[in-house]
Amino acid sequence: MINSKIQIALISGVLIALGVGLTLYKAVSLNLPLLPGEYREVWTVESKTSFTPTDGPVNVGLRLPASLAGWTILDEHFVSSGFGFSIIEESATVSTARWTRQSLDHATTLYYKMQIYRARADRQLPALAVNKPAQPLLEADQQAAMDRVVQRVSQQSSDRESFTLLLMQELLRESQDQDIQFLLSSYENDSLALILESLASAEIPAHELRGLELEDGRRRQTLSSLIEVHTGDKWIIANPKTARLGLPDNFFIWQRGGDAILNLSGGRNSSLEFALVSNSLPAKAVLGMEQRAEEFALLDFSIYTLPVEQQGVFKGLLLIPVAALVVVIMRLLVGVKTSGTFMPILIALAFIQTTLVVGLIIFLALIGSGLWIRSYLSRLNLLLVARVATVIIVVILLMAALAVTSYKLGLDQILTVTFFPTVIVAWTIERMSILWEEEGGHEVLIQGSGSLLVAVLAYLAMSNRLVEHLTFNFPELSLSLLGVILLLGKYTGYRLSELYRFRDLASKK
Q: What is the mean pLDDT of residues 287-313?
């Protein structure tokens, strides 16, 4: 019978070799870079069209984006299982994906995925034909209010550009005049439609510019809107939410004017949502991996074949093995005491969302307030279940109070307090309270400080760009980490803290 040490060594060796081997295979055969920053940042964008069918044939049309403002579309994939599929080229820059089916009896979701990257810094858009805007059809009282608003803004502006900005500022004011309030109520608070029709009333050509605000890991995102206005000699872009000119750096244009992006017949309750993931991969590597996915299906363990929504989730989950390795090293080799084994990992995950300094402030505030409240609850002699439930509710209330207060003070970063795991914080307060009663405040300080130290080190490891790149693009390295952790699990020698503790005995020999 093979003893446990040899079994662990064999299993760990196989895991480490498998993880490193698959990583080297992907780096050599699939041309994936081992180091970040070697190539351009590539965004994977996935649209999800969901609807419930009705009686009769189903016809779904999705307007596809074009390469504009320096962005280039590398590759496109369509999921149309059971549907007829075609792409209709309406012009050189306008095309529509069409899914058709004779009948359908269940709710369905259709996917469209593409990889994009910014190929040029130049964000100029091609010129469009300038057409005289059609005057809006309004009731007499609405037209009168519209005329007064247009006249007032015209008197305060010097050209079409300043007119547009002043009009947007009027709608963003906290205290609006009666004409603006009346028009907003008439347009059901659709400020974008009101701006477009106000510009049309002033005979200023303008149209809506719809697209995505690129933010890594976003799920269930919807399209945002800008306004493109012709000033007489050129087109300019304005943001109605901020009353500022210019195309934001992180804005990908999906449609420039035109009709609706999604057209559906034979269905109801349609929705169009997007998921986004950013990868530091070269364009050729992305295309090569997509084209050779079937050939290397058994060995390519990348998560790019998953829906983008799940890719964003795994981008964070794949960092947890790195944090687990940090905890194992600090506890088994260094000898740092922590309040629980996985609590530092979860705190480190929260630090990634809140940033380190803000996360430390929030954590110390929550734990300190919770311990004070827990000390009062202990005098009431509550049962354990009721006590923990009470602490959870108190922690949630503390989080809400901290978020509201920070919002009032304009401290937006502290609003990320919601990323802290509520149940873990509550259990940490409970454990520290019991430890305080049994071992005293000194032991609480040691374990609490140890937990924060390990959490900070785990955060530094997980937020490292090289670690993020390797864990996401080479998830098989988690097998190697598992092998290392198994080997460390058989370590029975002295910890560094013990060597320091017994240093006097060594000096007496």
A: 55
